[in-house]
C-alpha cells in the first residue's frame, strides 16, 4: 500500500512536470515568433510526420489557444514541428504543407544545434548544454543578446534568435543568407537552420525517435532583439572595407609589375592558383578554415589567439587577401612571400611561378 501511494505520488509529479514543460514550451515559442494579431489570411503552420516518418502533414492555426489545443491533440502520437514564419494561406492550401512562396513575414530564426557528423543518436541534456554553450560563445554580441530561448530536443538543441521587427519574405531571405555567412565559422549549427521555409521541433513536445520530451533550457530575461537595419549595414560595411583594402594591395603590386616589366596576366594567374593555405602548410603556420576565410596564428607576431585573417576570393576579386590585425598590414600571396622569406619581388614571383606551374613572361 505504501509503495502504491509512493508510485502514485511519483506519477503525479512526473505528470505535472510534463504538463508544465509542455505548456511553457508552446507558450515560449508562440511569444518568440507569433505574438501579434494575424491578418485574415495569415496562419501558423504546424507540421508533423505520418506513418512513413516524412514531415508531410500540416495544420494551420491563428491564435495561441488554437495552437495549444492542436499540439495537445498531436503530441505523443506523432513528431511535431513548427515553421517559425507567418504564412499566407488560401482556402485550397489550408491544412496542407506549404513552401517558401507562402511565407508572409518572419520575426526570428531557430539555430538547430547538433554535433557534427552525429545526428542520429540520443544525447543527454548535459551534453547538449555543452554543445549549445560552445555555439553561443562563438556568437557575436548582437546575436547573443537576441537569444530568446535555448532548448533540448533529444538529438541536439535549439538557440532561438529574435529580430526587432517582422520582415517580409524577401528581406527575411536576405537576412537569413547574411546570417549563414556571418555564422559560417561556427561548428555544430545544422545548415538547414538557414532554410527560410524549413521547420523545427516544437519545444515541449515528445521526440518519438528517442522517446523523450523536448524542453526549455533557458529563457533570456533581458532579450534585446537584433536590430535588422544595423545588422545589415554592419555586414555591408565589413565586406566593403575588405574590398577597399584589396584595391590598395592591388595598386602596390601593379607598381612592382610595371617596374619589373612582368606580364600582368602571369601575376594574376599566380595569385589565383597559389593559396595562402598551401604556403602555411609548407612553413608550419597554424590556421583554421571557415567558409569565407582562414583564421591564422600570425606568422609575424608571437600570439596564442589568431589575429591574421585570409579572405578567400569572391565576386569582387579572384585572389586571396590577408590582413594582419596587429598592425593592419595587408598582403596578397606575393607580398606575403616577400616579407616572410625576406626576398625581392622578382624572387617571390620566381618561387611562386614554379609552385603554380607557370612560366613568367616579360613585357
Q: Which SSEs are present, and which pair or pack?
A:
Blueprint: H1 2-34, E1 42-48, E2 57-61, H2 64-74, E3 80-82, E4 86-88, E5 103-113, H3 125-137, H4 141-144, E6 147-152, E7 157-168, H5 169-182, E8 200-201, E9 206-207, E10 212-213, E11 215-219, H6 228-260, H7 264-273, H8 276-283, E12 287-289, E13 293-296, E14 308-311, E15 321-324, E16 329-331, H9 333-341, H10 345-356
Keywords:
about 375 residues; alpha+beta; 9-stranded antiparallel beta sheet; 5-stranded antiparallel beta sheet; elongated; disordered N terminus
In short, what is this structure?
This protein is α+β, with helices and mostly antiparallel strands and 363 residues long. The chain has helices spanning 2-34, 64-74, 125-137, 141-144, 169-182, 228-260, 264-273, 276-283, 333-341, 345-356, and strands at residues 42-48, 57-61, 80-82, 86-88, 103-113, 147-152, 157-168, 200-201, 206-207, 212-213, 215-219, 287-289, 293-296, 308-311, 321-324, 329-331.
